[in-house]
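Escalation from tier 1.

The customer reports that the assembly of two entities below gives different structure tokens on two consecutive runs. Tier 1 could not reproduce it. I'm attaching the input and our single run for tier 2 to review.
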Amino acid sequence: MTIFRAARSSRAVRVALNCAVNPDSVARIDVYMLVASARLAHPVCLQCGTVDAAMMCDPRWDAQSVVKTEDEGNTKSIQLTHIDAGWIKTLGTDICVPSNILVNVTKNGAINMFMSVADSFRDGVEDEYRPVYQAIVDLVSSAS
Amino acid sequence: MACSRAPGAQAQDAILGAGTIYADLVVNTSAQYSHRICRRLSFATPAALLAAVAALHDHVALVFRADVLSVDVSPCTPEQFATVRASPLHFVNVCGKVTHCRASHVLNPAVLPLVVSVRVLYSPARDMGVYSIEARAANDSRHGRSTTTSVAAAICTARTVTSPLAARST
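Tier 1 run:
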């Protein structure tokens, strides 16, 4: 098994694999995590609970605040689980339902999202999940 | 509860400079979980600043369904302003794994000259050799500098799948 990480796109993964791996040895390629980032045009008050409340009230997932450690004082963490499969289907693409998404929001307005998913690798796979990420960004933006 | 302070009242006192105005706007509300809403914005004129404060006042009251107690405005420097700049959604990491079938080797022999280090961890209990391989990517050069990319290869059942690197790494 060969693990790949730190590529910014499926195209970069494909280029690296074509370069490094013997194609005759490849049985299958899977994706297990997609990490995306965005930055709002405004800071987020971490003491404010509107982002948490908006996430928790949204019917598309179950949201839970993650307890922070001392060195994570500039970050608000929210874990999304039980993503609504019906909502995923409405996004129009044949993507798998993510098992969970960790959303980190910093006071400077940066949003880092870590999505755990079990899907097969294909070109442009990350773009198929873009609507999921965009929905989260829009929600955080409107609630902060 | 009605707004107890006219929106922009503090703004008029805080910032009335010439040129571009950089300001932090903080909306204090009566709602339990939305007592502070932050915005860091730039304005061409003081009038634009006052208009933005009024608009933010109405926006927060509408969207957050909260009574606005006050809108605080404080100046910020261009350097502080630059730390909050919107950027669109982009991907920073695509993680996955390649499951190998039985083959004479899993790594492309052509990449071997690019390998700069190999670390081998062998687990006798699981009869598994784990190869951590760092290779310089031939097509990954930015700004004239060569960068390295890591390829972590775990070769299951070392007896049946043999990497040509094994001979070099031992």
